[in-house]
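Supplementary Note 2. Why include the ligand at all?

Several targets in our set were suspected to adopt different conformations when bound, so apo predictions alone were not considered sufficient. For every target with a known small-molecule partner we therefore ran a joint prediction. The input for dioxothiomolybdenum(VI) ion is given below.
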Amino acid sequence: MANAETPQTTRIGSATPRIDGRLKVTGAARYASDQPTAHPAYGWLLVSSIAKGRIRSIDERAARALPGVLDVFTWKNIGAIEPGKTFSQKGFMGTSIAPLQEQIHHDGQIVALVAATSFEAAREGARLLVVRYAEEKPSAGFGSVGLKAGPVEKPSPGGEPPLPDPKAGDFAAGYASAPVKIDARYATPTQHHNPIELFTTTCAWSGDGKLTVWEGSQNVSGFKHGLAKQLAIKPEDIHVISPFVGGAFGSKGSLTQRTAIVALAARQLGRPLKLEVTRAQGFTTATYRAETRHHVKLGAGTDGRLVALSHEGEEITSRPDDYKVGGVDTTTRVYACTNIASKVTMLHADRNTPGFMRSPPETPYMFALECAMDELAWALKMDPIELRRVNDTKVEPINGLPYTSRQLMPCFDAAAQAFGWNTQRPQPRSMRDGDWLVGHGCASTIYPTQIAPATARVRLTTQGRALVQTGTHEIGNGAYTALAIVVADKLGLKVEDIDVRIGDSELPPAPVAGGSNSTASVCNVVAKACEQIRAQLAASAVAAADSPLKGASTQDLTLAGGSLRASDGRSEPLAQAMARAAPGAIEAYAENIPHGAKPDGVALLYQGVSSIGGGFHLKDRVQAAFGASFVEVRVHARTGEIRVPRIVGAYAFGQVVNPKAAESQLMGGQIWGVSCALHEATEIDRRAARYTNTNLADYLIPVNADIASHQVLILPEDDRQVNELGIKGVGELGNVGMNAAVANAVFHATGVRVRELPIRLEDLLGARTARA
Ligand code: MOS
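The joint prediction is reproduced in token form.
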């Protein structure tokens, strides 16, 4: 063994193909509804065809007479369900609107679940249900009668008051004194995540009252506890299994109301029940990105320095719930400014409750701020990059807290150089290539760096294989690979030597995969567990008479290349060190409570509650990842057709665990940003408060031919304040600001400033009337 060829160690930061890639591309990865289930029944939902009112009657006779139909579940026979508390109420639900009730709160609310021996019979059974409603006129959102302003956030049941809207100095005075002013209103539409994996739930009860749930989830531990509350059973009697998630983007972060009814129906049926929610039903039975409006006022000196900034946002939510993204937490902290005001208003309509969707606060709010900054640059006749430079800051202006690291301007400079940015800005509508008007735009990119308490277990065997277990989630973020990389790095192995088990509520709990916290949260706790293993091996080696490392200092010993090594060159093969220290295997369990997190964060995690902290909510500092987004657009002078031939972004987000995955995340974000600017909108029939394009065919997304060239530049950054490994989140960084960069480029190309997303051809043809 001592002479064995030295194996390599996979290091944190080495570009590593996804270890689960083969499983995914060969179809071997089992998603929730792929799990084989013995003798299942199949469910089908019927959802309401009105947005407001109540159910008068449901005629179930034809459905029940259909061969294969086992039962029809409505409010009359489903049994007791506690609707549960939403995330903002410190619960786990995406909505507090109970399924299967007589009252209708929004279009597409669940009114019945039909169970049958086949998928087809369940679907046909649901079609045969005759529901009669007493209908009232709904309010769809902005511009509707009956829209009601409500509390921005109710105090949480824990008694914690909602955070106030950020402000500093005297906005009104600062704005009044400013020689250059921008006063503009922006709007973003309803958007749905549309993960390719549909929302599915399979529930199976065992004879002793234990429930297994297979469901795509960003929060297996939270789901277990949330569902237990809904069903009034013990959390330890519920097992949530979700090893792979086929797209989530926030939509699988909170528990939907469907899970509880599938569980209750399966119990009544006495057999497992599988439910696949249709694409259209997914629009109303899960969450989505709320429609928002913004009023931004900027006041600046002639040198470009901001002296006043105000950002007022309005967000549409459902009647009962107060889901808010409140991106002013971010937009008031991007630039130096002494006089700041902000305000977020919730407007309650007859809509399903919105929820997390990729960079929930920053996508709409940074769109507004970064368009306004571009407008200010034009008003000042200043290069927009220089405008950001004169307003760059090392401290956030609300509480004067320092950024742990901030590479906004290095990102701008790197991206500008790669893009070939012309600092002598040609006038709007002055660059032309044949029939195409050419425009260049840029915007700041930012995402708060968040981290949460987490737990993990690592087991190292004498054969030099390691198993890491933590209840985190693979939502396309590359979690399997990131964990394998960290364990390999810390234990001196290769990724091939590591087995990763995640996505299961029986594992040591990890936080909800939201707010781009996962990699930082779980990699740090896993590194801690690995350190315990290293320390145990080292302590054994230095004390052993037969070890070449005898007498070395335990702190000096590291694991690398399959050996335990001292800095003086002495080493001992891992197998030998293991055989002495712990014949068979060493197992270590670790908990991590990050800086600023509640001391009871791990106890809360064992109750399913994630305590995501950091970002702008620390007492002593603020932490965020930064970037700069650049695009070229080409707008056809006659048709208004908009093309985006080039995207360049530069980003700094601390320690990169896997550059290959990070680049892919950022590229996905960039493309999504273009999509947000030009394509994405859930259309609403405002008379009926009903979504009209509830399908994938109408869900326009850019494809390869739409974006000919994209570039992701990653700047090195070493910030050990954010956490020991120096990891900032990257998942939700790439799309922030890209929507504004596109809008700014469209203005440059055409001279038309479009302040409402998505930008449409008709906006550029002068034929635009205010949208309903
Ligand atoms: Mo993400 S929208 O925080 O799942």
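Residues 218, 249-250, 253, 356-358, 360, 514-515 surround dioxothiomolybdenum(VI) ion (CB under 6 Å). The longest helix spans residues 518-543. Comparable summaries for the other entries are listed in the accompanying table.
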